[in-house]
Amino acid sequence: MDPRVLDAMLPYLVNCYGNPHSRTHAYGWESEAAVEKARKQTADLIGADYREIIFTSGATESNNIAIKGVARFYKAKKKHVITSQTEHKCVLDSCRMLETEGFEVTYLPVKTNGLIDLKQLEETIRPDTGLVSIMTVNNEIGVKQPVDEIGRICHAKKVFFHTDAAQAVGKIPLDVNKMKIDLMSISGHKIYGPKDVA
Q1: In Å, how far are 79, 120, 125, 153, 187 from 159, measured between CA atoms?
Q2: pLDDT of 86
Q3: Is the CB of residue 162 less than 8 Å from the CB of residue 132?
Q4: Spans of all domains in the chain
Q5: Domain 56-191 adopts which CATH fold?
Q6: CA 62 from chain center: how many Å?
Q7: Nearest-angstrom CA–CA distance, 133 and 108
Q8: Which label site among 3, 43, 80, 126 has the fewest CB atoms less than 10 Å from its CB?
Q9: 188 pLDDT band (50/70/90 cuts)?
Q10: pTM confidence score
């Protein structure tokens, strides 16, 4: 962890240990203020509204909640999910789990340069497609997918777009509104923060 982050967190690890959800005493208020400050800083980093930020134990949990949550919520009418063959294992595992629940998942191949084919994505979206999940930057080969275009395509077709941006946040400009991203997963330890916070 970056020493600057440790210095900022140290009071909350040693003295200010109140539960941020306990709003009936000063310890809780102090912790709640710290969490809300972090929430606003995170939102500013990705161009989101601070009320849209949900902290989890890590990017794996965030990806699971985003993918399974949207898919299961719209299951009655939208039983098709699209992802790519080169996604992080936790995304692929979530999609495989959905297949056992009756969802159909299309795993888009990538071209020799590691990018998905945008035309193929557009042609693969069907009336029953509920979610597209494509990572922003690949964790193994470093390829940056054209998330602006993916977001535009999904928005035009009224399909939710999720991106795992754990490898991208803090390294390239991200704006969930401009990029038409509905759900984004990021990870604190990728941007000098503590592990187990996303």
Answers
A1: 12, 15, 8, 8, 24
A2: 98
A3: yes
A4: 3-50, 56-191
A5: Aspartate Aminotransferase; domain 2 (3.40.640)
A6: 6
A7: 11
A8: 3
A9: confident
A10: 0.93
